[in-house]
Known about the structure:
ATP binding; GMP kinase activity; five-stranded parallel sheet; Rossmann fold; alpha/beta; binds adenosine-5'-triphosphate
Amino acid sequence: MTASPPINPEVVNRPLVICGPSGTGKSTLLTSLFSSHPNTFGFSVSHTTRSPRPGEQNGKEYHFVRKDEFMDRVGKGEFLEWAEFGGNCYGTTFAALTALHPLRCILDIELQGVLQLIAKAPLQSPPLSPVFLFLSPPSIPTLKSRLSGRGTETDASIKKRLDAAKKELEYAQKGRYDVYVVNDDLEKAGMKLELVAMGWKGWEECGDKLPEMDLAELE
Ligand SMILES: Nc1ncnc2c1ncn2[C@@H]1O[C@H](COP(=O)(O)OP(=O)(O)OP(=O)(O)O)[C@@H](O)[C@H]1O
């Protein structure tokens, strides 16, 4: 068996930003990518103003900070992106990203964060300019059945996620992402994610076409 080529050194310094509706399969695919390529990728540790849940350690799952400190650091321009959800702030600092070097940073973030990064991208020097990947469900009924099938969400939380999915898919339809991957067949989607994440030859053209979806089905 021939060993697969190592990560392309040209993409190591470009963070990979993954966005997609909740339930599309981001965690499933990333877990598999990380286990196939240990010590290759790093997840940046976000800052949050929410309280730690039992078992969460400061600096591991999140850096837990008070809101005044968070906003002070936002004012100082320390955040690459940040957003507020349900009264709590979440964000990624430049320092959290650079701390991962030489691992390639993967960011699994919400649309608000993606929009901030896309707005800033032309201002970044090439090594910091992210690659933006949108992971799409094959259809809306499939997205709904994956979300409810996961068994982790209440009806209210499913509704919130589907509302967010509508905005995410609306934005995705504008074609601003560098690569679109449809998570229909897990193995095929995993191979495409691997190609993009490793920056192997062909990564820029391996994407799928975004499926036609009637977003009214999300209402
Ligand atoms: N290609 C696939 N075919 C069938 N089921 C899948 C596929 N990909 C993921 N799933 C299933 O869909 C459900 C949602 O996947 P997952 O939890 O990875 O989504 P997610 O995008 O990370 O969601 P969140 O943003 O809420 O964390 C899981 O139960 C997972 O096993």
